[in-house]
Structures are given as structure tokens and as C-alpha cells.
Amino acid sequence: MTHRQAVGLMVLVTLLWSIAGVVTRHLDSARSFEVTFWRSFFTALSLAVGLLAWRGRGLWTSLRDGGRWLWLSGLCWAVMFTAFMLALTLTSVAYVLVTMALGPVITALFSRIFLRFTLPWSTWLAIVVAGLGVAVMFGGESGDAFTLAGVLVACCVPLAGAANWTVLQRVRQQRQVDMLPAVLIGAIVSALITLPLAWPLQASGHDLGLLALLGAVQLALPCLLVVRLSRHLPAAEISLLALLEVVFGVAWAWLWAAEQLSPNVLVGGGMVLLALVAKETAGLRKS
User: What is the DSSP-derived secondary structure letter of residue 197?
Assistant: First the structure.
């Protein structure tokens, strides 16, 4: 896979991730932790069926022999799947999304500390501009919903993401380590954690259909693709491109949920896109 193909596939991943917001707006009765539970449940079900059909007994071998890196990555996936929804119950969407913009910075620092990677200046510049862009998009819409607990929980998302991308980079040269089952581990752990918080379950048949779509298409497929892409893209670049999820999510809400775009959203989204395009253009010129 060429670098250009890997970047294009990562853009597709963020496009799939971004449909969560607009789909959940069409739910009838499922709310909060029940959404997270059913989404994680259907993610685990999709992954179990898919990986069993693809790997057969090799799936159980991978789970048994995966070692610490597989289970650490699985724990990171579980935190990423769960902490976002928990943070939304404690503080505003704006604070959560601005906090998630710290992901590329934390990932870059983890890569430098734990992997001894030296990032080019273009990557650092793109991280700063894109992070400022997300802050501009939502900085004026926070209101009075700030809570320290909510922000601290929201910080778990970029921290777990940065740790996960770093772990995937760490093992990408060890072809004998199969990291795909880590997504399955994360989905199962997330479902088990959120089930008590989601009880009693109230989702309608309509809701279950939409949540099954989220589990299979919005989480299972793109997360498997990210594991595959970790062999071709640096951790910092994966985290930076993942900010497109915020831009795409706003676009879906505008197209399909009739939400109005404020000037802040337009300016901030433009900054994110400009930073990513400039970064990838610089990379192509260097190649």
C-alpha cells in the first residue's frame, strides 16, 4: 500500500466514524449508556462473526497468544468506546470535542518518548493549526456546562487513543502479533462495563436496527482498517487525520439534521482541512 492509498483509506475511516452523531439523532428511546452498550454489543458481534469466518480457530489462538500488547490495545479500545459517551453525560459536546483535539499532540509526544520518533516540523505545525481549528469550531459554544469531572473523563479519549496508536506502531514490525482481535476485546469490555449503567434497556426495534448499523459500519469496520493502516502510517499522522471525524460529523449534522453552521464552525473547520491538506501535500512533495 502506498502512502497516498493509506491516507485515502484513513479519510474513509474518519468518514465512517463521523456518522455516529447524525444516526443517533434518529433514535426513538435509546439514550446515553444504552446507546454505548448496544453499539459496543453489535460491534463485538460483528467482529466475532467476521473474524471467526476469516480466521477460524486462529482467532482463539491470537487471543490466547497475543500477549500484553494485544490486551493493552484492547483496553485502550474499551476506554475509547466508553469514555466519550460518559463524558457527554458530564459536560457539553463542545468541551468533549475540544479536549479530543489534544489527541495528535499527545500521540506525537508518546511517539517521541516511547518510540524515539522525530517528527518533521510540518507535522507539528499541522497539529497546532488543526487543534486550534477544533478549538475555534466549538470554543464559543461551551456555555456554562463546564465540569471538571466531565473534562477529565473526556481526556481519557485522546490519552487512550494516543496510547493505542503508539502500541500499534510498536508492534507493527512484529508480524507474528495479530492486533485485529484487540478491537473485539475492547468492544466486549465496553459492553460489559456499560450494561449495568444502561439497565433497564428501552431500545425499540427501530433503535436496534440503527445501533446495529453503528456497531458494524461505524465502529467495527473502520477500527479494523485503522489497525491495518498502523502498518503504513505513523501514529501521529493517524491521530492527526482522525480530527477529520469532527469536521465530517458537523457536515453530516448540517446535511441530514438541519443544523445551522455558525461562522466559528466554518472558520475552524477550514483551519482543520487546510492543516491536513498542507501536511499531506508536504509529505507528497518530500516523497
Answer: H
Exposure pattern of 245-266 as b/e (b: 16+ CB <10 Å)? bbbbbbbbbeeeeebeeeeebe
Could you give the CA distance from residue 256 to residue 120 in angstroms, rounded to a whole number? 38
Within 89-180, residue ranges assigned H as helices are 93-100, 103-114, 121-139, 148-171
**Distance between CA 54 and CA 49 in Å, rounded?**
9
pTM: 0.86
**Measured between alpha carbons, how far is 150 from 137 in angstroms, rounded to an integer?**
19
User: Smallest Cα–Cα separation from 47: which of 192, 183, 193, 178?
Assistant: 183
* CB-based contacts of 252, cutoff 8 Å, min separation 6: 18, 19, 21, 22
Using only C-alpha atoms, the chain has a radius of gyration, in whole angstroms, of 18
SS3 287: coil
Rounded distance, CA 196 to CA 173, Å?
A: 39
Q: For the purposes of burial, counting CB atoms within 10 Å of the CB of 52, is it exposed (0-12), middle (13-18) or buried (19 or more)?
A: middle
Q: CA 73, CA 182: separation in Å to the nearest integer?
A: 6
Q: What is the pLDDT of residues 46-105, one digit of tens each?
A: 999 988 888 888 788 878 877 889 999 999 999 999 988 888 777 766 677 778 888 888
What cell was used for 124? 507539528
Query: What distance in Å separates the CA atoms of residue 10 and residue 4, rounded to the nearest whole number?
Result: 10
Rounded Cα distance, 44 and 54, in Å:
15
Q: How far is Cα 67 from Cα 170, in angstroms, rounded to an integer?
A: 13
Structure letter (DSSP) for residue 275: H
Question: In whole angstroms, what is the distance from residue 167 CA to residue 173 CA?
Answer: 11
